[in-house]
Amino acid sequence: QVQLAESGGGLVQAGGSLRLSCLDSGTIFSLNVMGWFREAPGKDPELVAAITAEGRTDYVDSVKGRFTISRDNAKNILFLQMNSLKPEDTAIYSCAAARYPRETVPLTMATMKSLLKSGSWGRGTQVTVSS
Fold first, then answer.
1. What is the per-residue pLDDT across 77-95, written as a single tens digit (0 to 9) for each?
2. Distance between CA 82 and CA 99 in Å, rounded?
3. How far is CA 69 from each of CA 41, 50, 93, 127, rounded to the nearest angstrom?
4. For 62-66, 103-107, 110-114, which range has the lowest pLDDT when averaged over its residues?
5. Residue 57 CB neighbour total at 10 angstroms
6. Across residues 60-82, what is the average pLDDT?
7. Is the pLDDT of residue 1 over 70?
8. Euclidean distance between CA atoms 19 and 114, whole angstroms
9. In the beta sheet, which residues pair with residue 82?
10. Does 121 have pLDDT greater than 90?
11. Is residue 5 classed as helix, strand or coil in its secondary structure?
């Protein structure tokens, strides 16, 4: 059974940093496209960062230059380093995984969002940024 478990959320002041982690157990982690979604109250889940099995990354425009997604395939851990946090980054952040070992053409964020929404999800971790 696939299990994804996030950690690292919390309360931080605007301008601060947090690093989220997602431990993946039960999948062949290295063959997955992985991503971080966030969901704010009253809004649809938004894919903010994704990383392919081969390590290519992509981001939503609102976090480019501030967030960095990375993966450690030896330890089955996905990371999201979040710097220069803003109050509008406040949300529940969830990691997601979908089996997709090799890109034949570069996946767009829209395609990765579709893949990940149908994949496995963690329960999420709350990130709150105060002004």
1. 999 999 999 999 999 999 9
2. 25
3. 23, 7, 13, 16
4. 103-107
5. 13
6. 97
7. no
8. 25
9. 18, 67
10. yes
11. strand
Strands (E), 9-119: 10-13, 18-25, 32-39, 46-51, 57-59, 67-72, 77-82, 91-99
In this structure, what DSSP letter does residue 85 have?
-
What does each C-alpha distance from 124 to 31, 102, 118 come to in angstroms? 22, 27, 16
Amino acid making up residue 59:
Y
Q: How far apart (Å, rounded) are the C-alpha atoms in residues 118 and 64? A: 25
Strand pairing partners for 44? none
The yes-or-no verdict on residue 25 having pLDDT over 70 is yes
The token pair at 117 is 């929404």
Instruction: Identify whether the C-beta of residue 31 lies closer than 8 Å to the C-beta of residue 100.
Output: yes
Whole-number pLDDT of residue 125: 98
The enclosing H or E element of 126 equals: strand 125-130
Task: Average the pLDDT over 2-7 and give the result.
Answer: 90
Helix, strand, coil % in the chain, rounded to nearest 5:
15, 50, 40
